[in-house]
Amino acid sequence: MSMEYVEFFEELKKEDVDIAGGKGANLGELTQAGIPVPPGFVITSATYQKFMDETGITQEIMDILDALDVNNNKELQESARKIKKIIKETEIPDEIRSLIIEAYNALCHRIGKENAFVAVRSSATAEDLPEASFAGQQDTYLNVKGPEDLMKYVRKCWASLFGARAIFYREENNFDHSKVYIAVVVQEMVDAEKAGVMFTVHPSTGEEKILIEGAWGLGEGVVSGTVTPDTYWLDKATGEILEQQISEKKTMFQKKSENGQTVQVPVPDDLKNKQVLDAEELAQLAELGKNIQEHYQFPQDTEWAIENDKIFMLQSRPVTTLDMTAAEGEAVHEGERTVITKGLGASPGMAAGTVKIINSTDELDKVQEGDILVTVMTTPDMVPAMKRANGIITDEGGVTCHAAIVSRELGIPCVVGTGEATSILPENSLVTLDGNKGIVWEGKLVETAKKEETSEEPTVVLQAPLTVTEVKVNVSMSEAAKKAAATGADGVGLLRTEHMMLTTGVHPKKYIKEGNEAELVRVLVENILKVADSFYPKPVWYRTLDAPTDEFQSLDGGEGEPYEHNPMLGWRGIRRELDEPEILLAEFKAIKKLHEQGYTNIGIMLPLVQHHSELRQAKKIARQAGLKPQENIEFGIMVETPAAAMTIEDFIAEGVDFVSFGTNDLTQYTLAIDRNNEKVADLYTESHPAVLKLIERVIVECNKAGVKTSICGQAGSIPAIVEKLVELGITSVSANTDAVATVRETVARVEKKLLLKAARKMMQE
Ligand code: PEP
Ligand code: MG
Q1: How far is the C-alpha of 375 from the C-alpha of 41, rounded, in Å?
Q2: Angle between helix 581-596 and helix 517-535 axes, rounded to 10 deg
Q3: Which residues of the chain have pLDDT under 50?
Q4: d(Cα 653, Cα 469) in Å, to the nearest integer?
Q5: 90 alpha carbon – ligand 2 mean position (Å)
Q6: Which residue minimizes the CA distance to atom 9 of ligand 1?
Q7: Which of 41, 219, 502, 546 could form a cystine bridge with 8, CB 3.0-4.6 A?
Q8: H-type alpha helices, 548-610
């Protein structure tokens, strides 16, 4: 067999992205590391190239693309359809065909099944190009059986390189269509007798315990939460079983032998209350978990399956929700701690480095990789320097201020609201900060490697959502979208626009003043596209600009921003946009353009509304841009003012698809506490009964009217509040990237609790 065209996982390493694509190379790496993934092979990028060249279709396809105007949506869709048809209908040359069939037969032989069921997946081949340029995420075909079907789906994967979105993306980013290649992964489908999940540390505290959940049949039951699995806790060091709970497992998922479809069936009586995993299997799983963590050097959240007494790992991805203080705490030298200042823990983790005090944006170059950025309060134009920093400390601000939001999204530890950091921390001194407890110590107490971008961590198979109440994620920076999507969130419940408008460092108003609306639209399209694509087809709620005047002053063109005594109560949100409708119109035009390219997953959300007439006016501007609110695009509001909460009926009558609680603002406006004022931060609490009452009335009214409800303020990342919201009947919850997994766990637990309560009540009646 040729080594270039087809490679078994055993022959591939993680460096082989060029030939095997990201997924293929990762599966190779895991196999070589001794981790038992279901066996398979990769039809390499060279095969795709050979197919395109030998059949002579490359030129035909390039001619279609050369003649295409990607901004003409009809043409784009038509060209994509034509190209895909060409690829799907062109015969695969004999040489390639026999190599693929030979590999498939070898795989079947190896697993001892004739015409085995396999999964066929496209695998993108260049790490430096975003997945979007391949648009390959969707192309996974399960339960493919026999050589003929295999050929069909391989061609489908190749054709996926020319979806309308993928073509548009490459044109927008000037990638040469003929230089982008694709590989295809072919992998055995495991027909599990038992399956489940395993965390290699305690999923929320990071304690060195292994958590295993298992049930009968395929893993779908455990992953989707429809089956209550057995739960086992193991000591990571000794492997000792610390605790186990054997549940009653009523149903299980099985594969039908004829077509491989998954069906839910009752568990046979003798297995219902039987322990799923014996001591030997638990020990083997725990050992594997430790090896995987060792391999990735990070705690892992995995899926496993057992078929014929053999364990397979189906998925592994980093546990992104850990409170790292627990894990890193040991590194702190006890007894040597001198606390220099305290504030609020705003972004978890510990960091040490050299203090750089930033008094004005001219000084941002002072901050080098690994320093600690110290400033009165961060502003949007500081983001590039924030990215270089190991940690961030501010004088002002509460846990929902700019510094807090951005550092949580970047995964950088942060302490806000110290009241004094810029005046008491000596420039160039070494400090350590704890972003959980809000403490700053003298000296270097921990070794901090800058947190890795978890987006680059491999995910072998994408996981289905676990809960009925959707768990979404908040995104502010388009470059953080992939990391956010890797959490498996059900969509973006808040896409903040402020940062996207600032990627060029120019105030949006300047573009308009200079008659350059087109450039503003282009910047927006480029940024929103990255997010919409990373999540496609899951919904992304784009929130229109909410720029307090004080945050935009330092930008090019921001000199004219008015000075306001109370920017939080001032000219921001929808009220400002209705005064400056040109910016709002440009935003709507950008969304219209993306909708035309197929990104119909984008919805619109208006910030800081206080009267339903604002909704009416904004819809009118959306129509001017060619959008049809509530007809072809989801349209909603944020509930951030008590006024909106108290008159929600009027907004419902005016027409909304959804509302989302912006509790950061709702709390400050209900309690009269400036969210950025550290002097009153101790009184700032989203669980104040007044805030909860407002939320409750909105959920009740919206549920009556069939309007969806969500939350995207910081409270959506706080388990105790999320619990209340699920009980009240909220439709979805949107959390920060670092909190998605914990929130999902909380939601799943509350949903089960509610079901149990209802079942018990029914039994009593
Ligand atoms: C909110 O107010 O809760 C919110 C999510 O918006 P922002 O924090 O951007 O004001
Ligand atoms: Mg807000």
Answers
A1: 53
A2: 50
A3: 1-3, 127-138, 321-335, 450-465
A4: 25
A5: 53
A6: 496
A7: 41
A8: 549-552, 573-579, 581-596
